[in-house]
């Protein structure tokens, strides 16, 4: 074989070797030289440098062009491998396989790079087509995340409660004014909007010179309530935000939505992206992934000069909209409850439940605790409203509404002296029926019967009325607690809703609903939420009738006479707490009719009848 034939044979063998190989990974720092025993080795080194975004060894111009092509890819880096390489004398062509890892999948394609051999060293020849075969000197790659439309939280009828609503974003648009004017305008705008001037000035100063620096978001399509005309640089931007019907509407329960913080993005391990709307509290946070949906992605070839050629899509994954979260809230009830509490200065709450199905119609808090979930999650001593539970425990001990009890001025249990509330009618002290003891809220008459019950009987009676058993209801919820007392004094305290007994307004509304319904009611706010609910001793029809009889007496001739004609049954409560002398009190009332069971609580209220009573009356008028 002559020398020419031998050289031709060697070239054929090298080409065959390149065709059968699939992936070659060779480490190459940015300062390495191209070359090696074959063009494929050189292509593999180049592929690794290309994947790392550093091809300075090719040329400064190539490095600059690569940076321009990939700057719109949001710091994504591809995997680049060599699949084939064919040599022809001092020329070679290598096929590169790109795989871009995306949040919703991957973009994969082949391109090619030409190599030339100079002084025995293979060197890649740069061209935009190396990154993608459709790229030119006038185009680049661009990656976009498309956010899913956040789903609504809806009311009982499926109508939106929290949804996209128009807003106006008010702020300083820094490019509109000279830099020396920024602090002055920021202070003037902060004063007009009644926000902290120093904080906003610092925010404006720290922002980029081309930034619009938001100061306040105003609901609706108008900012007429503010005079912005005399503040240089003040501007408004129309937008949308996920909001409830009003600023206060079930705020602590529904929660808020805002763009994901840097900390949330970092902690999400790739599930969140900067700028994406995320639930920050309440139901919005608990059900964020359901409401948020899944973002989409788009990778395009785009003109380097804006608008010169249309985008060409290389990858598209449409966003998946979120799934609505249905609640049982009824706006008319919720708004009535919030209006009723609007002038109540201390922390307060009202919960309304439909006795027939347990649906929570309203869960409102007053101005002092409007951003909390106290209506469903608060923990307070329920005071004498808990006597409905005590009455059931006594019924199960063998008593009836007509059983007689001793309603004395005071009663002493193991050295502890108990008395009635301060306004207890003195002329009613003495022997009376259990019905009247409940109607008049006689502490001593019930405590005198403490030998009939124990912690387990109190706990079972509470469970029968929907109080004291924890489970996941899908919302911030405290169902109350009736643990075993550690002493006979503790038992006496429990019988009048003091000591270790705790409840939320929702828990006490559930007690009222169970009595009206005649069976154990479980509060439901999220009808589609599936959970395991603990069992409880059944409330019998006879027990329900007897409880309704006694709580009806509270309305006809007891401490809730103001509800005559409005409620079928009710119970007041004034719960002492703390170590002050005299002790502070929470004011409670529960009431029910066929349409609704209500509970209201006012922290540091004077009395159940005087403080909580007018609130329940307003709800039922």
Explain this structure to me?
This protein has about 625 residues and is an alpha+beta fold. It has 3 domains: about 5-135, Nuclear Transport Factor 2, Chain: A; about 155-325, Penicillin-binding protein 2a (Domain 2), CATH 3.90.1310; about 330-595 and about 610-620, 3-Layer(aba) Sandwich (Beta-lactamase). It is about 30% helix and about 25% strand. It has 19 helices and 23 strands. The strands form 7 sheets. Strands 6, 7, 8, 9 and 14 form a 5-stranded mixed beta sheet that branches. The chain has a 5-stranded antiparallel beta sheet with strand order 16-15-23-22-21. Strands 1-2-3-4 form a 4-stranded antiparallel beta sheet. Strand 3 (about 105-120) and strand 4 form a beta hairpin. Helix 12 (about 385-395) crosses helix 15 (about 455-465).
Helix-strand blueprint:
Blueprint (H helix, E strand, L loop, with lengths): L2 H18 L18 H14 L7 H11 L8 E10 L2 E12 L2 E14 L2 E5 L13 E8 L6 E2 L5 E14 L8 H12 L3 H10 L5 E8 L14 E10 L7 H4 L2 E3 L2 H6 L9 E3 L2 H5 L1 H5 L3 E8 L8 E6 L7 E2 L4 H11 L6 E6 L6 E6 L8 H4 L9 H10 L7 E4 L2 E4 L2 E4 L10 E4 H7 L2 H5 L7 H10 L23 H8 L9 H13 L23 H17 L11 E9 L6 E9 L4 E6 L5 H13 L1
Parallel strand pairs: 6-14
Antiparallel strand pairs: 1-2, 2-3, 3-4, 5-12, 6-7, 7-8, 7-9, 10-11, 12-13, 15-16, 15-23, 17-20, 18-19, 21-22, 22-23
Q: Could you name the CATH topology of the largest domain?
A: Beta-lactamase
Low-confidence stretches: 1-33
Distance between the termini: 112 Å
| Strand elements, count | 23
For the report, how would you describe the main beta sheet? 5 strands, mixed
Task: Round the mean pLDDT to the nearest integer and report it.
Answer: 92
Integer-rounded radius of gyration: 37 Å
Beta fraction? 25-35%
CATH architecture of the largest domain: 3-Layer(aba) Sandwich
Assign an overall shape.
Answer: elongated
Structural category is alpha+beta
CATH superfamily of the largest domain: DD-peptidase/beta-lactamase superfamily
Tell me the number of structural domains.
Answer: 3
Overall CATH class of the largest domain = Alpha Beta
> What's the number of helices?
19
How would you classify the quaternary structure? Answer: single chain
The residue fraction in helices comes out at: 25-40%
